[in-house]
Amino acid sequence: MAVKVDQETCIGCGACVGTCPVGALDFNDEGKAACDSDTCISCLACVGTCPVEAISEE
């Protein structure tokens, strides 16, 4: 299981990208966060760091 980033809500601040312990989150071509589901370990550390609550469990 991985996390899902709501692209409409994401503001591209990078808080989640810096928090992910395995580097599963990065910026897409639109400057918003995106999750690599193959790398994500579902620790949910990113969920609590998102200031606009754009990340949820998938």
Q: How are the secondary structure elements laid out?
A:
Layout lengths: L2 E3 L9 H5 L5 E3 L5 E3 L9 H5 L5 E3 L1
Antiparallel strand pairs: 1-4, 2-3
Give a verbal description of the structure.
Strand 2 and strand 3 (33-35) form a beta hairpin. The protein is globular, with a radius of gyration of 10 Å. The mean pLDDT is 96. It is an alpha+beta fold. The longest helix has 5 residues, at 15-19. Strands 1-4 form a two-stranded antiparallel sheet. A two-stranded antiparallel ribbon has the order 2-3. The protein contains two helices and four strands, in the order E-H-E-E-H-E. It has helices at residues 15-19, 45-49, and strands spanning 3-5, 25-27, 33-35, 55-57.
Brief digest:
This protein is of the alpha+beta class and 58 residues long.
Biggest sheet overview:
2 strands, antiparallel
Q: What is the 3D form?
A: globular
Radius of gyration: 10 Å
How are the strands ordered across the major sheet? 1-4
Give average pLDDT, whole number.
96
The arrangement of helices and strands along the chain is EHEEHE
- The counted number of beta strands is 4
- What is the tally of helical segments? 2
Beta-strand content bin: 15-25%
Oligomer: single chain
Low-confidence stretches: none
Structural class: alpha+beta
